[in-house]
Write a structure and sequence with these properties.
The chain is of the alpha+beta class and about 475 residues long. It is about 35% helix and about 20% strand. It has 15 helices and 19 strands. The strands form 4 sheets. Strands 12, 13, 14, 15, 16, 17, 18 and 19 form an 8-stranded antiparallel sheet that branches. Helix 1 runs antiparallel to helix 3, helix 8 packs across helix 10 and helix 13 runs antiparallel to helix 14.
Length: about 475
C-alpha cells in the first residue's frame, strides 16, 4: 500500500485510529479460527458511517481488499485478511441508540457487544433471544455478518429472525438503508435478509435495528443422563413431537462431560454416555407443566437419571457448564478446532455415531456437544497445529464429517458461517447453480471484488482452504 493511500486513510479516521506497525497488524492477522492467518497492510477504526463510507470509497478506487471485523470471535476464518489490504474494525461504532418500547425494537451500532444488548433490553423487561457462545465478547455486527445462533435457537431462531432493518456502506462509498421498524414490509427483494449472513462480502453494516420480545417471566432447567446416545436423541424427537418447544436442548457426549467436569467441578456422572440439558421459559404455570412432561419423556425414553434444578442458581450453573464446554476443551491441547455440522433432529444419533466412527478411523480426539434441539452439533478436535501429520488427519476427518452431514440431509454449517474454513464444501450444500447465483449477487454489490475476498467462494470445491501466503506462523490456540 503506497504512502498516498495511507495518507488518505489517516485523514479519514485520524492518526490515532490508523494502524500499520508490524505488531499492530499482527493483532488483526487472525481470528478465533485456528490454522488461518494473513497479515493486513493497514488497520482502520472508523467512528461513524461517514468515515466507513469514505474508507470504502478509497479502497474501491485503488482496488484494495477490505476485511471488516468486530471482536474477531468467529469460527470460520471469516475475518482473516487473506489477500492483505485494509482491516476495517467496527468496535468504535458501539452505541445503543434506542430501545423503542412501543415498537419493541432496539437500534444500535455494529460494535455493540451482544451481552451488553441483552443486559440493556432485559433491564426494561424485554428480550433479544440469539445467544451465541461468544456473546460476552462478540459484536452485534459480527452476529449479523455470520447470522449467529446459540443455545436458544430451537425455540427462538437465529439472528436473521430478529434483524428488521440495516444501514450499510457499499463498496463504492454509498450508504444504503433497508428494512425498518415495520412489522410487515414486502416491498421488493429482502435485501435486509440478504445482508444478514453475507460475511462482509457485500457491504459493511453500520447500524442495526432488531426485533425484541417480552422477557419471559419464568424459566426452569433440568438435566437427563443416558447410557445410550440413541435414547438421548429419541428423547429430543419425542419432546418436539409432543408439541413442547423448549428454549434450550443441549447435548454433551461422554468425552465432553469428562472435560467439562474437570473444568467446572459440578458433579457430572462420568460413567454416562451422554447428557441433555434442557431449559424452558415462559409463564410460571406453563414452564412447570412443560418441565414435568419433559422429565416424564426423558425417563420413558431411557434416561438413567433426571434432575430438575431446584433453584435459579442451580439452573444457571448447569447452563454455565454447557457454555464452558469450548473453554474446557481448549485446555487439553495447544489447538482446538470447533466445527459446526447440522442434521435434521431425527438423524442426530446417527450423526453422533458417524463422528465417533470417523474420529476412530483417523486416530483423532473429537468430543461432540451442541444444540440437540435443532440438530446443530459441534464436533471439536483437540490437536496441535505444529504436528502437520496429525493436522492432515484432522482435516480428513472433518471432510468426512461434512459429507456425512450432507448425506443425512444436513448442512455444513448451522451457525458459524462459511468463511475460509467451509468454502471448499459450500458446493456440496447449494450445488453449482447455487454457487453461480451467489457469485452474480456478489458481483452486483462489489464489481471490483474488494469486500472480504477469499471467503465463501473457494477456488476449488470439497477441499479446505490452505493458509494464505500472507500468513506468518503462530503457535497458540484461539478459543
Amino acid at each position: 500500500m503506497d504512502k498516498e493511500v495511507k495518507s488518505q486513510l489517516r485523514g479519514i479516521v485520524g492518526e490515532n485510529w490508523f494502524l500499520d506497525s508490524k505488531n499492530e497488524l499482527y493483532t488483526y492477522s487472525y481470528d478465533a479460527t485456528p490454522l488461518y492467518q494473513a497479515m493486513p497492510d493497514a488497520v482502520v477504526l472508523p467512528s461513524s458511517v461517514e468515515e466507513v463510507a469514505a474508507v470504502l470509497k478509497v479502497a474501491n478506487e485503488y482496488k484494495i481488499p477490505i476485511t471488516s471485523r468486530g471482536s474477531g470471535s468467529n469460527l470460520c476464518g471469516g475475518t482473516v485478511p487473506v489477500d492483505g489490504g485494509i482491516v476495517l474494525v467496527t468496535t468504535r461504532l458501539n452505541q445503543l441508540k434506542e430501545i423503542d418500547q412501543e415498537n419493541l425494537t432496539a437500534t444500535f451500532g455494529p460494535g455493540l457487544i451482544t451481552a451488553d444488548l441483552h443486559k440493556a433490553v432485559e433491564a426494561q423487561g424485554l428480550f433479544y433471544p440469539p445467544d451465541p457462545g461468544s456473546m460476552r465478547i462478540s459484536t452485534m455486527g459480527g452476529n449479523v455478518a455470520e447470522c449467529a445462533g446459540g443455545m436458544r435457537g430451537l425455540k427462538y431462531g437465529v439472528t436473521k429472525d430478529y434483524i428488521m432493518g440495516l444501514q450499510a456502506a457499499l463498496p463504492n462509498g454509498e450508504v444504503l438503508r433497508v428494512g425498518g421498524k415495520n412489522a410487515k414490509d414486502v416491498a421488493g427483494y429482502d435485501i435486509t435478509k440478504l445482508l444478514v449472513g453475507s460475511e462482509g462480502t457485500l457491504a459493511v453494516v453500520t447500524e442495526i435495528t432488531a426485533k425484541l420480545l417480552p422477557l419471559p417471566s419464568a424459566k426452569q432447567t433440568l438435566v437427563a443422563y443416558y447410557n445410550d446416545l440413541t435414547d438421548a436423541a429419541r428423547t429430543v424427537q419425542r419432546v418436539i413431537a409432543q408439541k413442547i418447544i423448549p428454549a434450550t436442548m443441549e447435548f454433551l457426549d461422554q468425552a465432553t462431560m469428562v472435560v467439562v467436569e474437570d473444568f467446572a467441578k459440578i458433579g457430572l456422572p462420568l460413567d454416562m454416555q451422554g447428557m441433555l440439558i434442557i431449559e424452558q421459559d415462559g409463564t410460571p404455570l406453563q414452564v412447570e407443566s412443560d418441565v414435568e412432561r419433559i422429565a416424564q419423556i426423558c425417563r420413558a425414553e431411557g434416561a438413567v437419571e433426571v434432575r430438575t434444578a431446584q433453584t435459579a442458581e442451580e439452573g444457571a450453573t448447569l447452563m454455565a457448564a454447557r457454555r464452558a464446554a469450548l473453554s474446557a476443551l481448549a485446555r487439553m491441547k495447544p489447538t482446538t478446532i470447533l466445527e459446526d455440522a447440522t442434521v435434521p433432529r431425527a438423524r442426530l444419533a446417527e450423526m453422533v455415531e458417524q463422528v465417533n466412527v470417523i474420529a476412530k478411523k483417523h486416530s483423532v480426539h473429537i468430543c461432540t456437544f451442541g444444540h440437540a434441539g435443532d440438530g446443530n452439533l459441534h464436533p471439536t478436535c483437540m490437536t496441535d497445529e505444529r504436528d502437520q501429520e496429525e493436522i492432515h488427519r484432522v482435516e480428513q476427518a472433518f471432510e468426512e464429517i461434512f459429507h456425512a452431514a450432507i448425506k443425512l440431509g444436513g448442512t455444513i454449517t448451522g451457525e458459524h458461517g462459511v468463511g475460509m474454513a467451509k468454502a471448499g464444501y459450500l458446493e456440496l450444500k447449494v450445488g453449482q447453480n447455487g454457487i453461480e447465483i451467489m457469485k452474480r449477487i456478489k458481483e452486483a454489490f462489489d464489481p471490483n471484488g474488494i469486500m472480504n475476498p477469499g471467503k465463501i467462494f473457494a477456488k476449488s470445491s470439497r477441499r479446505r482452504v490452505v493458509v494464505s501466503s500472507h500468513a506468518c506462523g503462530h503457535e497458540h490456540s484461539h478459543n
